[in-house]
Amino acid sequence: MKNKNNLFIGALALLFVLFSQASYGQSAYKEASNAFALYTQTGDIKNLDNAMKQLGNIYKTKKDSTKTRVNVLRAMVLSSLAYADSNRTVKTNINQDPIDLTFQTLGKLTDKDKEGYPGEMDYVKQNLAAALITRANKALKDSKFDAAYQDFSKVDEMHVKSEDVTYNLALLANKAGKLQESVKFYKAILESEKVTPQQYIELSDIYDKLGEKQLALSTLETGRTKFQEEKSLLFLLIDKYAKNKAYDAIVPLIGEALKYEPENVDLNYLAGYANENANQVAIAKTYYEKVLQLDANNYESNLALGLIYLKDFLSDTSNQEAQYNAQNYLLKANEIKPYEINALKSLAMYYEKAEDATQLDRVNMLLNQLTN
């Protein structure tokens, strides 16, 4: 009988211990919930600190640390701490960053668990995203580009819609030499309503780095179509056409560019050169003449006009105006650059056609010295 009584007393003691632990766990959860509720009302981080301490008491047992409602509350508290306490004044009991601890806590929840707490999960996601962006921006200031890229990538993986995050990822991927990844992010930006002219330019530059010349050009063309008044896109597109020798494409754009910079010598010369290559010689001459009004000693425009008039003179030796202008412009070009082969060869052609043997011998002698 005595043994039976001892067993009964032992069983009661065990039940009391279990009940006490359960009650303590429930009490700690309630305390944590209340502290978190106070934080949402007051914004006082001390309440988050209190909530964390109460959750630490619950987390002492493996059984309690796997409970869904406990981990949901813990994720909410930690994500709030990660965002609100950016200077990390509150220390966690295991000395880990609240951002990392939030991800660890979320890892204890199944997809089905998360589906049961949609509002809570949205709250955690928004806090995490804000905390990651804050940390990433700090890393950027410290030139820790890889760390910043990792944090922005985590925000992107959470499917938090933010043009700023995508743009930062595009910039950082480019800086890190991850050009294809950068292209992916820029393409996403170009589909948004907040795309800027500069972002078209940056994507075009990346395509150039990748050797995708046509994509670089088409990106600028698309940007130009979207931002008709953007000077930088216009000038870059003209420059790109010039490098590709697409002079027909320059002609309809160059006039608009000159409205921005009517006294730009290089731009006026390009206008003349493009029109000449597009067989609009009369228009080309006006641009070359404009260059000489701005800079009488411009070698390229003196030579260009000299060659235009030389061509007319070679085809009609009775054209005295062409003969006079060809001689004057070519001599001026030769005066500016006495040893430039193109000007000397053009003068030789002129003197031969004009039957000026003395000058022809002089020019040919100089050419022989320079080419032998």
Outline the secondary-structure elements:
Elements: H1 2-42, H2 45-58, H3 62-65, H4 68-84, H5 98-106, H6 111-115, H7 118-141, H8 145-157, H9 163-175, H10 179-190, H11 197-209, H12 213-226, H13 231-243, H14 247-260, H15 265-277, H16 281-294, H17 299-315, H18 320-336, H19 341-354, H20 357-371
Helix pairs in contact: 1-2, 2-4, 4-5, 4-7, 7-8, 8-9, 9-10, 10-11, 11-12, 12-13, 13-14, 14-15, 15-16, 16-17, 17-18, 17-19, 18-19, 19-20
Describe this entry's structure for a reader:
Helix 2 packs antiparallel against helix 4 (68-84). The termini are far apart. The protein is built from 20 helices and no strands. The longest helix has 41 residues, at 2-42. Mean pLDDT is 87; it is low at 1-25. It is rod-shaped. 33% of the residues are buried. The chain is mainly α and 372 residues long. Helices cover 80% and strands 0% of the residues.
Short characterization:
This protein is mostly helical and 372 residues long. The protein has 20 helices and no strands. It is rod-shaped, with a radius of gyration of 38 Å.
